[in-house]
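Listing S7. Sequence submitted for prediction.
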Amino acid sequence: MVSQNLNRNIIMRVIFLAATALLQAWLVFDEKQYVLAVFVAVVFVAEVAELVNFLNRTNRKIAWFFEAVKNDDSTLNFPVDTGKGALNELNASMNKVNELIKNIKFELREQEQYFRAILEHVSIGIITYNEKGTIFLANSAAKKMLGYEYLTHINQILRVDEKLFKALKELKPGGRTMVSFSGKNGVIQLSLKSTLFKTAQENFQLVAIQDIKNELEIKELESWIKLIRVLTHEIMNTVAPITSLSQTILGYYKNLHGNLPDEKIIRNTIKGLEVINERGAGLISFVETYRKLTRIPQPEKEAVKIAALFDGIITLNNMDEETGNVSLSKEVAPGDLEIFADKKQLTQVLLNLVKNSKDALKNEPGGWVKLSGKVSETGRVQIMVADNGPGISEELMDKIFVPFFTSKETGSGIGLSLSRQIMSLHGGSIKMVSSPGKLTVATLEF
């Protein structure tokens, strides 16, 4: 509607200009009325000036409007009773657009305040900064953890702790790490997780900082309780018979009253000492196993091709007579995937996982074990050992990584505990997921 009125006004002025020009030409060439022609020429110039002024007035008004929008000024208000229809409609339209922009800004401001309020009340610290390290947002939790009232640049974190600053600088988008340092209130243990997001102007990194000290202490306490239960069970099973036999043998000789023991007492004594010796040897073996678990050497890392590693595991498996009808296959994508790890330790972990899978499939027809390697969505290398065995129940899932816990008759109970420690020394993790009767997957993540 505004454009129609504007066009009509321009067309009317152009028609008047054309009519004035024709009138001037008629007066000059046909009627020879030069004085009157000069007057008409003045009218023509006035009409041109008025047309230019009309267009400039409209353009200036639109320019003012866009300049106000550009400068974030929504207070501009144009009169709608100028007495000129086209101008009134233009002003009314610009007022509507201005009101719409004002409402959108108000809604955006409300949303921003809402999200800021949420960020201020969460217990997880949030920091966002650009590629230059300038911090644009740091919530209260982050400031409290780092001991700063104002955070403007990540270099400030260097004053908190050099190790924390280094961990933050080396943290890649999509990655996570844990770091501990000594703060004003003692040792602080933080979990850092990074996410990259882009705006029209630049890239930003969002880092979530979580204080996990309490959670780790609870987990550590739970682990100690589980370990102590297992140790108590194992030691009591060994020591109780030794104590009982010792008391029995001691009773034999106390009742002799200086007489020589008969052949039966000597025979029973020898049998008892053999049992004590056997139990003692078992206890020594148990302690040696525990020592092995607590003295894993630091990994000697090298570039390891996943496909070649799997080939070695499959070769060793084919030489094992206990493999039975269990098939072992591999899948690596991409084919040249490699990791930086201790090959011997990693082979030990994989052999243990494959053995666990084969043990679970002993009485299962059509059993298979699959080794696979890939890169996760977060860019981390994953090695998986999957089988179609009976699986692990929820009750056992919570205990499988406890040292010396085993559900096998001949198991030592240190395989998965050892595997977890080896993965921890590599800066990685081991996870177990099971759907009983369908699929069990052990995932090593580096």
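Caption to Listing S7: primary sequence and predicted structure tokens for the chain studied. The chain has a mean pLDDT of 76. The chain has four domains: 2-108, 123-211, 217-294, 302-445.
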